[in-house]
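Issue 218. Parser rejects a valid record. Input:
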Amino acid sequence: MEVLLRPVRAVCALLVLCVMTLSGCGRSDTSDTAAGPAARATPVVIDAGNGKITIPATPKRIVALSPTATEILFAIGAGPQVVAVDDQSNHPANAPKSKLSGFKPNAEAVIGHKPDLVVLASDIGGIVKDLEKVGIPVLLEPSAVKIEDTYDQIADLGRATGHAGAATTLAQGMRQQIEATVKAAPQAGGLTYYHELGESLHSATSKTFIGQVYALFGLRNIADRADERGDGYPQLSPEYLLKADPDLIFLADTKCCGQSADTVAGRTGWDGLAAVKNENVVPLDDDVASRWGPRLVDLVKAVGAAVQKAAARQ
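Output the parser choked on:
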């Protein structure tokens, strides 16, 4: 589970879409092939969350301290270059999982893997500076705040690792699948929803990354009016939720907390909710619902299927 999409996430900088050129020379680095990453004779500059970062050569030993980064790296064909991933990176199954933590990163432990590139989603404890002090290039690719950030980060990691062509292909394929899914689903119009992050009833509003996914289908978020702090992740009261009576309930706490349609129906007063009565309680994979990488397509398809089902029952 990518913790940075949880209520405790920090405000992160928006990433700028990088043009596919090498700094200072105008030569393209999109010549990666099925045989492996494109070898670079000159450095490439990536505009990441920690500034403009120079990657001097095609990395051969990558450490990923973010489950989303791990998924992107393997999806673009950079898996063979990855020597270690953090302890929360559980997809794909063949990723070299280690004891490294993305929550409490230890620079010495990371350095022990002799990386020539480190990718992470948060600069907790100032690890970026610690790694840069010993000359290790670091790409900070923070939690996405809009869907476009996903494509930007895929492009960043593609250029950085010598897989720019594969990254472009991946992003284009994702766009096409998402557009097709949204087009096939009826616009939800007046349908409302509740996205559950945990049993404590923390949710995500329309201005968050996850909220934008639901907005693709025209769904209305019941959590928006409860966001008094303005951080996008309010905690709803049981009374508020019961009064809002959402048409759909999406559970992003099935793996972590064992939540299901049955457990929701068993909560006090919840059996009378429209979503429960109409069997529109939708279990999601916690990891897919909290990461912003290639499996965003799976999340969009899950929401699209739920919208089609709910609309058919109206």
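Fixed in the parser; the record now loads. The radius of gyration is 21 Å.
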